[in-house]
Amino acid sequence: MSATAVTVPVRRAERRFGELGLGVATLWLSVIVLLPLSAVVAHSLDGGLGAFRDAVTSPQATSALRFTLLVSLATVLINGVGGTLIAWVLVRDRFPGKRVVNALIDLPFALPTIVAGLVLLTLYGQRSPLGINVAFTQVAVLLALLFVTLPFVIRSVQPVLIELDTEMEQAALSLGAGNATIFRRIVLPNLVPAILSGAALAFARAIGEFGSIVLISGNIPFKTQVSSVYVFNLIESDAPISAAAVSTVLLLVSLLVLLAIRGLGRWGARHDR
Amino acid sequence: MTVSPRWRIGLRAVALAYLGALLFVPVGLVFYRTFEHGIAAVWASITTPAAIHAFQLTLEVTAIAVPLNTIFGIVMALALARGRWRGKGVVNALIDLPFAVSPIVIGLSLVLVYGIHGWLGPALTKAGVQVIFSVPGIVLATIFVSLPFVVREVTPVLKEIGDEQEQAAATLGAGAWTTFRRVTLPSIRWGVAYGVVLSVARCIGEFGAVSVVSGKVAGETDTLTLLVDKRFSNFDLAGAYAASALLALIALGTLLAMTTINPRKEGDG
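Output (structure tokens, whole complex):
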């Protein structure tokens, strides 16, 4: 960074090495990810625009998409509140076993989704030792999504809370503010960007989730069927064009959420200063 | 601490109750259900030929996907953190696609390229290569879903350490490869390790994308997660639990590796 005479030969050597690497890496990304995804979009129009419209506006497709969006939204709201609370407890509270609890938060990320479905069915299914049986209901889908998206908000809020200075809160307390006021006026505003970006990631995950839902939902059309399971059924019943059409809609939703996350990131960075 | 003890304990109770009901009790119950009829039955169930084959296939697929994505991840992270090139923002956004796209859509996308009616299907059939409903399809699906992990772990570490040491090495006459091997790689090794652990967990656990492309031929294209699904659907609940417990143990091992690596990774920066 100091003298240009020093950096120039470095840059040149690195550039040649870097250009080749970048070329290979971009090719890898294109072949593995972009080529297949563009095949989905292209194939969705193979039957013409009319067939595309029929596939995505069929009663079963719209009902599945509506349920997917609503249950994902409910998931994000509950885990937004719950995740913020858990993050607060893990950062500000002290109790025996806290480190173990903290490590186990990531279990839903590490556990295969099909196992997650079986896990929930064990406690909340037909053989439930608690006598609570929600299998094959919309509540079951909500439970599965709450499980798999649990870590997102916690892991996004935790580092912000750790960095957050308690001095402001102490000042507010000494000025006579109550707990609720301090949380609402001081803690929450600092956490909002982190909560929103964690929630957006959780939303993206919930929209596309399949493994944890497939066992527990019962896949009842117009009731517990989500879009990903609907697409799976279309593939199994050999309707690839309809499957591609519904998938294209799901892809669009994913892209929108990704864009929202990038926007949130920028907004959060600006908010920091 | 601004909250009174009574509030603090109340909030703690609510948080732990939520975690208990959603996470700890269900996972514990699966282990209880697995071992309630004794360990011998579990052992017999995870050592059937089909189970052993599924386990081997899962490990093989992981052993192919993780090294390839690790090399890609390091190269791409270097390009993103060090390089200045057109389209960087777009590529940076596209890398996250496998995290956001439904596994079922990923599976379908591979069928539409490599299946018999796919873009490359006729050419592959002529060459006698079967990708879909065969092992190569499972490998491709696994590479797809685990692609972003190493890039996403290594890029911030590279940005954090800066390039001063690399420049110093180069001024002292080290070539690009030597600089990378002796200076860059040692300082990003814990970031790489963390990314590899996350990739391994995802590769072993992938279900949705794999279930679309595998065809589920017993003893040929069944991975461990597909075996859980198949046993559950065939009312072999004990068998499904045994395979699930094995996967859950792998997941717990992953968590252990993550907590061991994480502090070192942060200590590096």
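Chain B touches chain A through 96 residues (CB under 8 Å).
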